[in-house]
Design brief:
Elements (H helix, E strand, L loop, with lengths): L18 H7 L2 H4 L3 H17 L5 H20 L11 H13 L12 H37 L4 E6 L2 E7 H26 L1 E2 L15 H7 L4 E2 L3 H6 L2 H27 L7 E3 L17 H24 L14 H23 L1 E3 L1 H9 L5 H10 L4 H18 L8 H7 L7 H4 L2 H6 L9 H14 L1
Parallel strand pairs: 3-4
Antiparallel strand pairs: 1-2, 5-6
Helix pairs in contact: 3-4, 3-6, 3-8, 4-5, 6-7, 6-12, 6-19, 7-10, 7-19, 10-11, 10-12, 11-12, 14-15
């Protein structure tokens, strides 16, 4: 069966486009999300056309007024984009024709859907990068306030998921602050490449009409204009870079999720998720699950998948535009939405968590994770570190064999391992003393955390 509606490109064909072929190639269901950007781009283009005398000012006004009405119609749901219109650009142009007649056709002077869709995509990316940056900023503020609340709370730091050394919980939260800081830097850097206008490249070779691409760029608040019309319509690097930045953010969130899931488990019991952010089981009444963190961890897979999708779509494409590139929107939209949603909800989840301070205090005081303090104590008494490590290893074996925690081992017993031990060993064995004694730059000491908090506030 053939299609009844006229498409933008059909003039040379004697037969209408097959309906199934149109259904297959239509992207309206996805790219309708770009309607605001499309109208923004068209308005700038038409303004430029009138300024350059390519179309009359009256016609430009008529078109722009029509576009404004269409935007309201789309926003209110009065105009529902239909798949038969092929894409959102066509939806808007066809509706404009219904409203103002043949003048609507002037909107496309010196423009192709190739530079049009590239412009829309860049406007969309710019908007989403700003939204994502704002979400990350809020996340950073939450992390700084967590670090302030828990600056003096002692938790275990882990390597290999084995208790390693006691640290300030503030130090832990600030590690994530730094990760999200790099994520924001990546987005800011990407924004420089995104904020370049492709409008005026036309199909790919430019135009014989006296267009002013610099002016359209300025009207759309782009920082600069393309320098090569082929590249302008063919470049999707910015999408790949964006999804790559999203993947990194999701990877960070996924690691954070994992910590949260483990820490909230009965086995760890370090952290409490408030009921408003936990889920239960339909079968097991005792369950309290960290579904939100699990979903964030799961969505990470989706975003990584989109990155591979985009890289694969672009691989081997001959210059310049190819229809394959229409497939860029589902991975782009999905990554942007999933990442912004995940950052936002995870920030809220963090606000609904509390550390179980009493339990942590008890656990950290009794733990073997203070063994490094013994080794460093011996180093301060001039024993070479390798020997100190060996001596401490023996003490750890003794502690496990006798069931005596490190602070419970007597001084006489310590002395059997090394003559260098004195009663001050017990000061070194207090987790807070161990943390306070950390002297190095960016360490886990309370003072270092205080400095990091001050710096973080300045950096946000
Ligand atoms: N819907 C198309 C896309 O998103 C618009 C560009 C169509 N260009 C073309 N030469 N068929 O890529």
């Amino acid at each position: 069966m053939s299609n009844k509606k006229e498409l933008l490109w059909q003039s040379r064909f004697s037969e209408p486009f097959d309906r199934d072929a149109l259904r297959f190639s239509s992207s309206v269901h996805v790219d309708k999300a770009l309607y605001k950007e499309d109208i923004q781009g068209s308005t700038a283009h038409v303004t430029m056309l009138a300024e350059e005398g390519i179309i009359d000012r009256d016609e430009a006004e008529l078109i722009i007024r029509g576009l404004q009405e269409i935007e309201t119609e789309l926003e209110s749901g009065q105009l529902v984009p239909h798949w038969e219109d092929e894409d959102i650009h066509t939806v808007i142009e066809n509706r404009l024709k219904e409203k103002i007649g043949a003048t609507a056709g002037k909107i496309h002077s010196g423009r192709s859907r190739n530079d049009q869709v590239a412009t829309d995509t860049r406007l969309y990316l710019r908007r989403q990068i700003r939204a994502l940056d704002a979400a990350l900023k809020t996340m950073q503020q939450t992390l700084v306030s967590k670090a302030e609340t828990y600056r003096e709370t002692i938790i275990f730091g882990y390597t290999h998921l084995q208790r390693a050394q006691p640290i300030s919980a503030g130090h832990y939260y600030l590690a994530y602050f730094n990760m999200f800081r790099r994520d924001r830097q990546r987005l800011q850097d990407l924004l420089k490449r995104v904020n370049i206008s492709p409008l005026g490249a036309a199909a790919f070779a430019g135009s014989t009409l006296p267009l002013n691409p610099k002016r359209s760029a300025e009207l759309l608040d782009f920082d600069d204009v393309f320098s090569n019309s082929i590249d302008a319509v063919s470049d999707r690097d910015i999408i790949i870079e964006f999804i790559s930045a999203c993947s990194m953010i999701m990877m960070h969130l996924s690691r954070f999720s994992e910590d949260l899931i483990l820490w909230s488990s009965y086995e760890f019991g370090y952290l409490e998720i408030s009921d408003a952010f936990a889920t239960g089981s339909s079968l097991m009444p005792q369950k309290k699950n960290a579904d939100i963190a699990e979903l964030v961890r799961g969505k990470t897979g989706r975003v990584y998948g989109s990155l591979i999708t985009m890289l694969t779509i672009m691989k081997g494409l001959p210059l310049s535009y190819n229809r394959d590139m229409q497939e860029d929107k589902p991975p782009l939209f999905d990554s942007a939405e999933s990442t912004i949603d995940s950052v936002t909800i995870f920030t809220k989840l963090l606000d609904h968590t509390t550390l179980r301070e009493e339990r942590l205090a008890k656990l950290t005081t009794e733990d073997l994770s203070l063994a490094t303090e013994i080794a460093e104590y011996l180093v301060r008494k001039q024993l070479p570190f390798r020997d100190a490590h060996r001596v401490t290893g023996k003490i750890v074996t003794f502690s496990i064999a006798t069931g005596k925690t490190l602070p419970k081992i007597s001084l006489d017993e310590y002395k059997t391992f090394s003559e260098l031990f004195d009663s001050d060993i017990y000061d070194a064995l207090k987790p807070e003393a161990s943390i306070k004694a950390k002297q190095t730059h960016g360490s886990c000491s309370f003072l270092s955390v205080e400095r990091q908090i001050a710096e973080a506030k300045f950096l946000i």
